[in-house]
Amino acid sequence: MAKTRELVSRRKAIRNIRKITRTMELIATARFKKALDRAQEAEAYTRKIAELAADLASAGGEISHPLLVTHDKVEKSVLLVIASNRGLCGGYNAGILREANHRLRGNRELGINTRLELSGKRAIAYFRFQRIPADATYTQYEDKPRFDEVEELANHFLELFMSGSIQRLDVAYMRFLSPARQTPVVETLLPLSKPNTSQSKAGGEEKKAGRVVEYQYIPDAKEILGQILPASFKQRLFKCFLDAAVSEQIARRVTMKAATENADGMIKLISRQYNRARQAQITKEIAEVIGGAAALQ
Amino acid sequence: MATGKQLRCVVVTPEKAVLEQAAELVSLPMSDGELGVMPGRQALIGSMSPGVLRIKSGTQIRRVFVDGGFVQVRDDVITVLTPRAQDGADIDLEAAKKSLSVSIPKDAGAKVMKEHHNTILRARAMIRAAKPF
What we know:
The complex is a heterodimer of chains A (297) and B (133). Chain A folds into two domains: 2-27 and 256-296, Orthogonal Bundle (Helix Hairpins), CATH 1.10.287; 32-252, Pyruvate Kinase, Chain: A, domain 1 (3-Layer(aba) Sandwich). Helix content of chain A is 62%, strand content 14%. Chain A is built from six helices and six strands; from the N terminus they run αβαβαβαββαβα. In chain A, strand 1, helix 2 (92-109) and strand 2 (113-119) form a beta-alpha-beta unit. In chain A, helix 1 runs antiparallel to helix 6 (221-296) and helix 4 crosses helix 6 (221-296). Chain B has 133 residues and is α+β, with helices and mostly antiparallel strands. Chain B has helices at 93-100, 110-130, and strands at residues 7-12, 17-23, 25-30, 33-37, 44-57, 60-74, 77-81, 85-87. Chain A binds chain B through residues 38, 41-42, 44-45, 48-49, 51-52, 55-56, 146-148, 151, 213-219, 221, 223-224, 227-228, 231, 234-235, 238, and chain B through 12-17, 30-32, 35, 42-47, 69-70, 72, 74, 79, 81, 83-84.
């Protein structure tokens, strides 16, 4: 008797948990769609900026800009880790933190002084546990990162880099490749990689059009390029945050889906055990009744 | 000069594509003054200052505040890339006016000064975008 009751209460508990995970899955699905839409809307700007930079680079000849200078000796760098504020999203945070830790250790071996900046409570908690002090922490970047917020951060990095207090900026985040594939990466955002000239990148497209567009530049190509590089950096950093937001929701959805399925399996198993136990109990009771009746005769 | 041709004006911010519409004349707030663009213009890449983007189609003139950025004109398509854009009708005039009258200490650093200057420029452009003269 005791066993069946125990099974019933366990089954009930699992049903409740299943309800929660199922709801979280649905919420994550809805948020994922929104985040993905935002990321796709931002795509247009990214593409256009890259296109402009490429056109300018091919027109401006030799480009030199402080943001493009690669330092031979990197003494100080910043590692920005973008993780989530909340857990229950499977290997999402673990993957990012592993990559970040790897880079951190690599930097230490190379003798690079690394300034650690963390975004997301999960990252903060992890590094606190590892007893690695963080230099700056942010928790305001959620599933809807706003450009204004990211721009502030970007300006801070630009200033550090331009003033020469850092020679490199790395960002550890979950890159979104497709809804079914995301990989944790550490990407070097500063110094910026040189914009591809249109010969190498947009070459195919322009050949199709059959001509190279002659642009008029106001004020001139070099100056515009000087302004477009910071904008392009800001956009790349913003894209990191957007990617992270999308990936987080996907990770949570997948995890919660698995959890719901596990709960289903457990409910089935426990139901079966419960039915067996009940059956056994009834059989036992019948046997007792029969036994009792036989004893009376 | 009714050539029958029309411009297509696209405004994009890092967050989303703000507007896309056909126009006959588009006036851009370039870094060295206003620039009007009509159909058939030579291809152009330029940088903009905070200002008002005017889009004329038919008898309607639409004013949009843009916070600097870049513009590309190519094959009668005007692409405006700007960190922030706001339709004139959506601008909070009071808030913009308020930011005009914000004062900063006299001995503020160059950085604060510059920021303040930018804020004023932005607020002025916003006010211009919000009310037609």
